[in-house]
UniProtKB/TrEMBL annotation:
Family (UniProt): Belongs to the RIPOR family.
FAM65 N-terminal domain residues: 12-290
Pfam families assigned: PL48 (PF15903)
Protein encoded by which gene: Ripor3
Top-rank taxon, per record: Eukaryota
Transmembrane portions of the chain: none
InterPro entries cross-referenced by the UniProt entry: FAM65_N, RIPOR3
Protein name: RIPR3 protein
Organism, scientific name: Eolophus roseicapilla
């Protein structure tokens, strides 16, 4: 049988790697409750992690390019100043600004390299996990022997270790996602919004929540009791937005929508307009700055 030879090779690769958690300081992994009471399963999401990684890296590179352009501009100004003045101070405000931008560029470069390092480690664990799963399936189809049962036990153990490492890396990667600053821009509804109408908007991202109330004024302007909120991005959760109309003691559900955050990893503020009702008669407008 050729399986033991492949299994031996797999073990060498797996056991030869140093523990992911011993090489980096990581957040606690996300554990998801299974249907069986008291049981806990690990649930990494490789495809979602790949999407977030690509969006994050693109956004970080945008910031890096913008600051590199600023550094080039400041350096050009500094050369012109030195050329046109014999009495340039040894450490002018312009030089201080240049050094500040240089430090920020170095931080960005380190940030990008750390994100790439984490994702590379994640991909390695993912491939090892897929290999263990494939070999588990192959062994389960072969005749049951003592050796095959022992191999299945070892493969299951290895599969669990890779899964756990992937979840730890997901937690570590979330630390590098930054912050989303959300600004309330108001509801858009034309004839559906009348003076005196009161609404409640509830925004949730995982365990993070933002509840705010607003009123349509007589001049069609809107007043909201809170206009800005900071959310910490995560890998798996989408924004959930719920809008209700307040009528005395009663509340009427206007609509509930979800919004993916992948497109928010960019240097420019994003104007987000989402349809709250199915026909789009009431929309919610937000501004997101990463």
């Amino acid at each position: 049988c050729i399986f033991p030879m492949f299994l031996s090779s797999f073990y060498r690769k797996s056991l030869g790697r140093s523990s992911v958690r011993s090489r980096m300081s990581l957040k606690s992994p996300k554990a998801y409750n299974s249907l069986q009471k008291g049981a806990v399963i690990w649930d990494p999401k490789p495809l979602q992690v790949k999407k977030i990684f690509e969006a994050l890296k693109k956004g970080l590179n945008e910031y890096l390019e913008a600051h590199q352009a600023e550094l080039d501009y400041l350096s050009g100004r500094h050369k012109d100043t030195k050329r046109n003045s014999r009495l340039t101070p040894s450490f002018s405000p312009l030089q201080k600004q240049i050094r500040s931008v240089e430090r920020y560029i170095r931080k960005l470069e380190f940030h990008i390299s750390k994100v790439e390092e984490l994702y590379e480690a994640y991909c390695i664990q993912c491939r090892l996990r897929d290999g263990a799963a494939n070999m588990k399936h192959a062994f389960s189809l072969s005749p049951s022997t003592k050796a095959s049962r022992e191999s299945l036990v070892e493969l299951y153990k290895n599969f669990q270790e890779c899964t756990e490492d992937m979840c730890f890396i997901e937690g570590a990667l979330e630390v590098h996602l930054g912050e989303f600053h959300l600004k309330m821009k108001g509801l858009v509804g034309f004839a559906r919004l009348c003076p005196g109408d009161q609404y409640e908007v509830f925004v949730r991202l995982g365990r993070q929540k933002w509840r705010l109330k607003g009123k349509i004024e007589t001049d069609d302007s809107q007043t909201w009791d809170e206009e800005e909120k900071i959310f910490i991005p995560n890998l798996h959760e989408k924004f959930e937005i719920k809008v209700t109309e307040l009528r005395g003691l009663a509340t009427i559900l206007v609509g509930v929508v979800t919004c993916d955050s992948i497109n928010f990893f960019t240097t420019k503020p994003q104007a987000i307009i989402v349809d709250i009702t199915e026909l789009g008669t009431i929309k919610l407008q937000l501004e997101v700055l990463w």
